[in-house]
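Bug report

Summary: structure tokens for Glycoside hydrolase differ between web form and batch submission.
Environment: batch mode, default settings.
Steps: 1) Submit the sequence below via batch. 2) Compare with the web form result.

Sequence submitted:
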Amino acid sequence: MKTNNQLLIINSKTLTIGTSIRPAHILVVALLFIVSMILVPLNVVAATADPTAVKWHPGHYYIIKGSSKNNATYLSQVYSELDATPALNGMMIRYFWNDLEKAKGVYDFSSIDKRLAELSARGKRLVIQVQTKSFNKRQVVPTYMKTAEYEGGEFYTTDYGSTEIRGRNIKLWNLQVRSRLIALFRAMGERYNSHPNFEGIGMIETALGQPIEPITNAQITGFYNNKIIVQQKMRQFFPNTMTIQEVNYPRPILASFVGSLKDIGTALSSPDLFIEEKGLNFEGTKYDPHKGVYNYYEDFSGLIPMVPTVMPKNYKNTKGDGSGYVPTVSQILAFARDKLNANYIFWTREAHYLQVLEVLNQSAQKTTDAGGLNPICPASYSSCVK
């Protein structure tokens, strides 16, 4: 890390002190000389420090309610819980793309700045997810992208078997859309990479959703290829900060896609932690060799950060369709820690948050490194800074 210290070097061989100089002046010169001798070694350390070292504070983090990220009353309660829970290192906040870019190249990071300052004052850290997919009718791209140049910027999604609009995703196969998303991360990297309490930056899940209007195989291929290119750029813009990609589906692309994340040095996340979900746990067979994403946590543990998330549905059932059982928070924690080799866990703060706090305040999480999770710096990082 660079230092802003300015050194005052005094050459004792050329400094002449006349008899008219008062003793106080001599004392000041002597003190400056001593200070310079102290600061020089610090400057040497800074000059030789690894410029690609990554901030590394593994453990447990909240995911707060996105609609309340600027609500003072809600945040006051969240901060009191963070203060009272040593195992909670900070929180993740999710912002839609159009929350952050109000016009082309015009960015509004004021909310992030405020939350980062508040967390820093408490010794806690901030992780940001940029959402480029919604699960309702909410627009996700900036309004200027609703033109032919960007193909409208986004497409509508629905549930399987339905034609009703249930969400939106971006047309990332479009090179202009990709370019503008890269520009957003460049601006964020310039602003936040060097901040010691800005812990991570990530993108939402890989699942495309069910498009209402058909899209071509070439567009699907372009979507995932461009997502990898965006992640490559993010590592360049955030050389000292963990970059994250949520991965769930489609299974046929995961070997190549997650392999690319490993090569880039991007943290592996998942948008859900369903203990018994077949598609996520699937180990592959000779008839269907495409493994579920949970298997890649074991494959790449120690190489890249493992950072699963716990969403509201995960507290309610071990399967997405509700056919499993209701897990305890301790069971969810054990699965993430032991099966997924988690370095970080992001816990959604919702109706079950009191049970989460109870577990995180147990001695196994409260008094151990990284809240009982794997604290080892991953091999994809040249070094880690705590």
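Above is the batch result. After comparison, the two runs are identical; trailing whitespace caused the diff. The radius of gyration is 24 Å. The chain has 13 helices and 16 strands.
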